[in-house]
Amino acid sequence: MSRSVTFCLTLSVLTLSALALSVLAAPVLARPAIISGMAYVIDGDTLVIRKRHIRLFGIDAFERDQTCGRFRCGTEARKALRDLTKGRTLTCETKAIDTYGRTVAVCKTSDGRDVGGEMVRRGLAVAYRSFSTQYLGDESYAKSHHLGAWGYGFESPLQYRRKER
Fold first, then answer.
1. pLDDT of the residue at 164
2. Mean pLDDT for each consecutive 10-residue tract of the chain (165 residues)?
């Protein structure tokens, strides 16, 4: 057999081996990263676990200094997230990394409670429709029961941020 044929066969075997390894590794790489631990709350939709900033997926909470009528919705959102997470281990499933380098994740308490969904259901955050429709039912519940900011009227957190710039 000539050298060029041997070289081509060797190259083909190496290429197939590399392809097979990449196919076998794909499921491992495709699994979402899980972050778990105790959380430190930054605001109503951002927390820190193990030095990683995590933005709750699919929700947009009221900003820290935002008011909704006479209701201090931003302060109450932060306080509610603290209460939901205090003394509990959270397990967060990574969905993406945002433009600020934060992990975007769905976080649940050890009893399976979806923290983002609970924030929306309490009327302290809205469903972030640009990214997900996952929490629309929770938002409808809060709205129909006039919970949280829904009892006072409000400007969406997104509109509030745009105005503050």
1. 78
2. 44 40 41 90 97 97 96 98 97 96 96 97 97 97 98 96 85
What's the pLDDT at 61? 98
Q: How far apart are CA 63 and CA 43, in angstroms?
A: 7
What is the value of pTM for the model shown? 0.80
C-alpha to C-alpha distances, 96 to 26, 43, 58, 155, nearest whole angstrom: 17, 19, 11, 27
Tokens matching residue 78 = 């932060």
Residues 6+ apart with CB under 8 A from 162: none
